[in-house]
Every structure is written in structure tokens, then in C-alpha cells.
Design goal:
Blueprint lengths: L7 H28 L6 H22 L5 H9 L1 H33 L6 H18 L1 H11 L8
Length: 155
């Protein structure tokens, strides 16, 4: 595994557009479908769940530094249950990644590149992601500095 490192600011710059894009594209329609007149409660409940998730993640990182979720889950719940949980994580993230890729492709095709086949957009995004992963976490962490030149800091 590579030893590349990025700063917390670089990580925030990578996560912010992802979270905002997901929230803008998916959350309003799904929430309105189920919440109906109680739509105003949704951000409050989501915030509480989000804060709890961040707090638990932070505490687990402090207790088990430099370990992945699968590694410290084995220490917390045992070797076999930890491996099963890691397997479940894997099979949770694969379909979610596909769903995100599809949503991205539909958004780009519907909004900007109307005559472009969605499979081309999705294939190019997968190729771009493959190049970024091949370049390593430091390359991926420094890309947002190009987008935010006035906030660029040295690591």
C-alpha cells in the first residue's frame, strides 16, 4: 500500500463537492416522496444522524489509528464476524458506486451533453477515476488545489 498523505483541508476539498452534488441531485425528491408535509423535519433528523456518524468515526479513528474499518472491526467483534462485516461493506459499496455513477451520467447527459450516449460519459468517468487511483492519494488530494487556487496550501 502506498504511503502517500494528504492534508485535512485537501480531504475537505475532495468531499465537499461530492456531498453537495449528492444532496442537490438526490435528497429533495426522495425526501419529499416520503416526508410529505413533514419535510421541514428531514434536515434536523439528518443532521443528528450525520453528527453521530462523524463522532463515532472520529472516536474509532482515535482508538484504532492507521487501521481500516475492516481491520478494527475484527478487533472489536472478532475475526470471523469482522471478516463478514468487511464482506458486507464491500457488497454495500459496489452497488452504491454504480448508482452514483449512473446518477452522474444521467445528470451530465440531461443537463449538458444531450446527444452523448450515457455509456460514454460513464466509461470516461470510470477511466478518469482509474487514472486518479493509479496516480495515488497525493495526486487526488492536490487536484482540488487547482480548483481553489486562492485556498491552496502546502502540505
Amino acid at each position: 500500500m502506498e504511503k502517500g498523505k494528504i492534508s485535512s483541508l485537501q480531504m475537505a476539498f475532495m468531499l465537499y463537492p461530492t456531498i453537495v452534488a449528492t444532496a442537490v441531485l438526490g435528497v429533495p425528491s426522495i425526501t419529499a416522496k416520503y416526508a410529505k408535509t413533514d419535510l421541514w423535519l428531514s434536515p434536523i433528523l439528518a443532521s443528528l444522524i450525520g453528527y453521530a456518524t462523524v463522532y463515532i468515526t472520529y472516536k474509532l479513528h482515535k482508538l484504532y489509528p492507521k487501521q481500516t474499518v475492516i481491520q478494527f472491526s475484527e478487533q472489536i467483534i472478532g475475526r470471523i464476524p469482522g471478516k463478514i462485516l468487511g464482506f458486507l461493506f464491500l457488497f454495500f459499496y459496489i452497488p452504491i458506486t454504480g448508482q452514483i455513477l449512473r446518477s452522474y451520467g444521467e445528470f451530465i447527459v440531461d443537463s449538458f451533453l444531450v446527444k452523448t450516449p450515457i455509456s460514454v460519459i460513464m466509461a470516461l468517468m470510470v477511466l478518469l477515476c482509474a487514472f486518479i487511483v493509479r496516480g495515488g492519494i497525493e495526486v487526488m488530494g492536490k487536484v482540488p488545489n487547482c480548483w481553489f487556487p486562492f485556498l491552496s496550501f502546502q502540505s
